[in-house]
TrEMBL record:
The keyword Hydrolase does not apply. It comes from the Bacteria. PANTHER family: DISULFIDE BOND FORMATION PROTEIN D, GLUTATHIONE S-TRANSFERASE KAPPA. Residues 113-332 form the Thioredoxin domain. Belongs to the thioredoxin family. DsbA subfamily. This is Protein-disulfide isomerase. InterPro entries: Thioredoxin-like_fold, Thioredoxin-like_sf, Thioredoxin_domain. PROSITE patterns: THIOREDOXIN_2 (PS51352). Residues 1-42 form the signal peptide. Keywords: Disulfide bond, Isomerase, Oxidoreductase, Redox-active center, Signal. One of its GO terms (molecular function) is isomerase activity.
Amino acid sequence: MGVVLRLSSTGVTKMFLRSALAGALLVSATHGSFLYAQEAPAAPTPAPATSAPQFPPVGPNNFSATTPTRETVEQFLKISWGYDTDRVWEVFAIEPTPAPNVSKVTIYVAQKSNAQQIAPLVFYVTPDGNHLIANEVLPFGAHPYAETRRALQERAAGPSRGASDKKFEFVEFADFQCPHCKAVQPTIERLVQDFPNARFVFENFPLVSIHSEAYKAAAYGVCVAQQGGDAAFFKYADAVFANQQNLTPEGSDAALGEAVTKAGLDPAKIGSCSYTSAGKTPVDASVKLARDLNVNETPMLFINGRQIPVGEVANGELPYEKLKEIVAYQFSLDQ
């Protein structure tokens, strides 16, 4: 087994290092999926324990590509990983590749608390300098989340609570029939309590190919918000998630009607609305926004444009306190 290094700029919070052979298998989780997996160059033989990791020496010929600059890579890593004070890295090389204007970036990464374990991270940067390529295309640059943040500020129009301004903004994409979305709701509520100066927006992303009643539940919710306001919507949402097991073809009408009643509205009126463009158009707009942002799973949370697979809190991969660190760090960058 090679060195397995699991890093994250979003949801995963610590490195998992295993015993090394000559080659190293690097796995880096970013934005809820593997950033890169490859047989990477072997890390240097671990040196005796010191107060800091002993990274391989960096030579001037290691930086033969014109873009991105070393400073840009450093800024990207600081934005992505700066919340973790135990993580340290060295930008080792930025080199051209046979593909025109595509650069290869090599980084060595370690933990202060485990200085002898060092592993390489390799990714590729597109010619425009705005994306990195791994097994998917991810934002890159000195301000990697700015474009997504602008898109959400302009287009995330779902029910909201908390602050009225968008300086600190959470946007949750969820499917009412998704079990992981239900499981993560206590985490969302903790964030609401812990970040009272932030705005929380709910966006529908019904996964209709696997959840037959999700779109109907979303359209009901849109109509609840239209007729009863955002506070009524969140009462409705709580009730739907609480009785999620009843979202079946046979039981969804009754389950959604009960949730509407708990929100203080007339189920018949909401049901009628849900079949009209008033109920459907906002759901379709929310789905398009999710797809435009390359959201491919639910639940997904954005923190000022930074994508967090928040379901990892519910399944135990990401401790809530570490999530809070990421949130606080991102907000500190956006002051």
